Amino acid sequence: MRVVVLCSSPYSETGCAVAARLAQVGYGPVGALTLPSWDRSTLVRKVGQWGLRGSFNYAVTKLAPRKAGNHKKVLNPYLEKSLCHGDKIFRGLREVARAYQFPVITCRDQNSADAMAQLKKWSPDLAIFTGGNILREDLLSIPRLGVLNSHLGLLPEIRGMSTPEWSLLTGVPIGITIHFMDSGLDTGPILLRREFRADRECESLTDLRNRMIAEGIELIAEAVAGLDHGALTSNPQTDRERDRQFFVMHDRLKSVAERRLKNNHATFAGKCNE
Fold first, then answer.
1. Which domains does the chain have, with CATH numbers?
2. By C-alpha distance, which of 191, 233, 228 is closest to 22?
3. Rounded CA gap, 146 and 125, in Å?
4. Strand 175-180 vs strand 190-195: parallel, antiparallel, or unpaired?
5. In three state form, how does the secondary structure of the chain look?
6. Are 104 and 36 in contact (CB under 8 A)?
């Protein structure tokens, strides 16, 4: 199985963890295609997601000089298992690439002619999308099987942005969907669809999202192995809820979702203490 990773930045923890985890389970990438470190669209997205302070702290963890014996360089602690290599923690995609011997190519646009030409040279069976541009049909058709994405919501019910929060507000079970990407937004065929049972253990939305990202990486690894062994087939999404799309949540609504999550956690903790 020839696998390529598409990444939003060479310092993306999720992108690094996906590449490293695939290599750990025997599916080391044949290449990775990444946007630049300071890509404008990536910066805008990260500032919107984490705020200025969070984005600054993330940059510091990736770019600050290493200190001997210091393992606290992971923003998402649940990714440390995947990012740990010997006595070090991967801080960038090129570190992963050196350890597992695959090339990393930087491009300004993953849909550009140069980027697609590079993908064709790698001749991938499968690509894993961990962030970047909105992918066009020409690129999506290059991998033999398609491009996989880990979506932090159950499809087709929860499409779009802020998916864990909208799941909490709408009463849809929190879950993760591994699906093939198509020209629509989260409308491609579904490969794996799992409810996320650990939400009651989460004390904050940040903790919930971090846990879900880590679980999504494990499901990506499971999906790649399943496809390689012919044990998984995808199913097209039904028309039910197909036109429903959620957008970035307002802070007031997010606070309501956070309270619901904390109430779930308190109820679960109370039952465990009985």
1. 3-151+174-236 (3.40.50.170)
2. 228
3. 7
4. antiparallel
5. CCEEEEECCCCCHHHHHHHHHHHHCCCCCCEEEECCCCCHHHHHHHHHHHHHHHHHHHHHHHHCCCCCCCCCCCCCHHHHHHHEECCEECCCHHHHHHHHCCCEEECCCCCCHHHHHHHHHHCCCEEEECCCCCCCHHHHCCCCCEEEEEECCCCCCCCECCHHHHHHHHCCCCEEEEEECCCCCCCCCEEEEEECHHHHHCCCHHHHHHHHHHHHHHHHHHHHHHHHCCCCCCECCCCCCCCCCECCCCHHHHHHHHHHHHHHHHHHHHHHHC
6. no
**Residue 15 CB: number of other CB atoms within 10 A?**
26
255 C-beta neighbours (distance < 10 Å), count: 13
Nearest CA among 153, 151, 159 for reference residue 131 = 151
Which tokens in the block code for residue 176? 């993760």
The pLDDT tens digits for 181-240 are 999 999 999 999 999 988 888 989 999 999 999 999 999 999 999 999 999 999 999 865
Claim: this prediction has a pTM higher than 0.85: yes
The residue among 205, 214, 199, 177 whose CA lies nearest residue 76 is: 214
Chain centroid to Cα 75, Å, comes to 14
Partners of 4 in the β-ladder: 31, 127
Percent above pLDDT 70 for the chain:
83
Tell me the pLDDT of the chain averaged across its residues. 89
